[in-house]
Design goal:
Blueprint (H helix, E strand, L loop, with lengths): L12 E5 L1 H10 L6 H10 L4 E5 L9 H10 L4 E5 L3 H10 L3 E4 L19 H13 L3 E6 L3 H10 L3 E5 L1 H8 L3 H20 L3 E5 L8 H5 L3 E6 L1 H10 L1 H16 L4
Parallel strand pairs: 1-2, 1-8, 2-3, 3-4, 4-5, 5-6, 6-7, 7-8
Helix pairs in contact: 2-3, 5-6, 7-8, 10-11
The chain binds pyridoxine-5'-phosphate (PXP).
Length: 257
């Protein structure tokens, strides 16, 4: 699992989360707009992966969307889900490229905070094993607490995705000092996880204004971005919205696009 030391900056993947196209569709209850069409547009515009969260309450993505995504897209699907038996069965049926385990509370508007892996490590280890056996790359969505990284190692997860939403919120609120502290804590955690041989992803709340510090860190291999990109697509179209995100990622990483 340990990654070789290298001076070459690895490419940074952009996973586009299409959940909120489904949120809009479900507001009317019909078939439009179709999240699968959004996934195909993101694919054509150069996304590296598609992310979709099948929530237990099916508030945006529904089961049929997952089946259609698996059929329609050539890109890897990152299937976000709660660590429940129902979701495990669905994942094992579809065998997506990746499964990202997230905490879920019905009353929350979006995923607030990371998974408490430390409190549930034994169960999660057993939960992840059949997913890994089925060929899914399992990742755990966690906060920057060192205990969660240690627990992710105990679970044997090859990937963690750090919840960067608090940093993004603090930046949006103009709380620069608190944001800087949060970023410092995230940076330490990202480096620790990478040094321990875990592949590092980041996600939640990332916008054009907050992408740079995460894109600049060579230890980060993937960003998963949804709400902002889908919102921006209303004004400039998904392709141009995504192209601008990619330009900012490349600029921060010091690679030419
Ligand atoms: N990564 C994970 C694990 C998530 O749960 C979400 C939200 O569903 C995202 C990334 C994308 O967050 P946002 O929609 O705020 O960009």
């Amino acid at each position: 699992m340990n990654q070789p030391a290298t001076d070459i900056v690895q490419p940074l993947r952009l996973g586009v989360n299409i959940d909120h196209v489904a949120t809009l569709r479900n507001a009317r209850g019909g078939a439009q707009p179709d999240p699968v069409r959004a996934a195909l547009l993101a694919q054509a515009a150069g996304a590296d992966g598609i992310t979709a969260h099948l929530r237990e309450d099916r508030r945006h993505i529904v089961d049929d969307d997952i089946a259609r995504l698996m059929d329609a897209i050539a890109l890897p699907l990152n299937f976000e889900m709660a660590a429940t038996e129902e979701m495990q069965q669905i994942a094992l049926r579809h065998r997506p490229h990746a499964v990202c385990l997230v905490p879920e509370r019905r009353e929350e508007r979006t995923t607030e905070g990371g998974l408490d892996v430390a409190a549930d490590a034994n169960r999660l280890r057993d939960f992840c094993a059949p997913l890994a056996d089925a060929g899914c790359r399992v990742s755990l969505f966690i906060g920057h607490d060192a205990r969660q990284i240690e627990a992710a190692l105990r679970v044997g997860a090859p990937v963690v995705e750090f919840h960067v939403g608090r940093y993004c919120d603090l930046m949006a609120e103009g709380e620069g000092d608190a944001a800087a502290e949060e970023l410092a804590a995230l940076t330490r955690a990202i480096r620790d996880a990478h040094a321990a041989g875990i592949e590092v992803h980041c996600g939640h709340g990332i916008s054009y204004d907050t992408v740079a510090p995460f894109a600049a860190m060579a230890e980060v291999r993937e960003l998963n971005i949804g709400h902002f990109l889908i919102g921006e697509a209303v004004f400039r179209g998904l392709g141009p919205a995504l192209a601008e995100m990619r330009r900012l990622m490349d600029a921060a990483r010091g690679v030419s696009g």
